[in-house]
C-alpha cells in the first residue's frame, strides 16, 4: 500500500515538474509574465514581432510556422503585448525589452540562438545583438526597420502617390517638417483609411490584410506596449551606426512593394557580414509569398548557423 502511494506521489511530482517546464509563461525579474511558446526542433530561433505592441500569433498562424520544419521557433509576446502581461510600472523601455530577451534565453537554457525580427522588431534585435553579441549566432531580418523616421517618410511618400485626389493643403501638411513626423505618418494612415486602401502599404491583397488583422486582434489580450512605446524616445533614432559593429551573419529580406518600411531601407543596414535578398511582394511576405521566403531563409541558416 505504502509502495503504491509512494509510486503515485512520485508520478504526481514528475507530472507537476513537467507542467512547470512546459508552462507557456516565463516571469521576468520585474515580475511580468511573458508568453513564450516553442515549436519545432533544431537550432533555437527567437521570433521578434513588431507593431510596435503587436504579438507573435500574426506571424505563426499566417505562415511563419513553416520554419518549424527546420528549426525550433520561439514565439515570444513582448512586455504588454498579446498574451503577455501588462507592466503595471509601464516600463516599456528598450532597455527593459532587451533584458526580457536575455532573461528568456537564460530561462530556456539556451547558450546561443538565432534572431528572426520582423518590422519594428528590427530595432529590438539590433539593440539586443549590440549588447549581447556572444549569444547570437545569426540574424534574419524580415522586412525590418532600423530607423522609424526613414520608414515613416516612405509611408508618407507612398500615401501621396496613392491618393492623387488629396487637396493641396493636405499634401502640404504631410510634407511639413515643422509637424512631428509620426503625427504626419498617422495622418497618412487616416487618409488611406478614408479611401479604404491602407492595405496597399503592407499587402498585395485586401483580403489578406483583413485576415491578418483578425488574427492579430484575436490574440491581442494586451496592447499596452503599443499605447505607451511612443513615450520612449530611444526607439525613434537611427540604429544604422550600431549595425556596423555587429559581426554575426545577417540575412536581410526586403519586399519590392514594402512601402511601410521603405523599399530601399536595407541600404541603411551596415552589418559586417550580410546578404540582402528581395522578394516580389509587400510587408507580409511570410503570408503572401511564403514559399519564396522559406527558400531564402533556410539555406542561409543551414550555411551559416551550422558552421558557427
Automatic annotation (TrEMBL):
UniProt xrefs under InterPro entries: AB_hydrolase_1, AB_hydrolase_fold, AB_hydrolase_sf, Peptidase_S33
A molecular function GO annotation: peptidase activity
Presence of keyword Protease: no
Pfam families, per the entry: Abhydrolase_1
Keyword tags: Hydrolase, Signal
Record domain AB hydrolase-1: where: 44-289
Example GO biological process: proteolysis
Signal peptide: 1-19
Keyword Signal among record annotations: yes
Family in the record: Belongs to the peptidase S33 family.
Protein name: Proline iminopeptidase
Lineage: Bacteria, Pseudomonadati, Bacteroidota, Chitinophagia, Chitinophagales
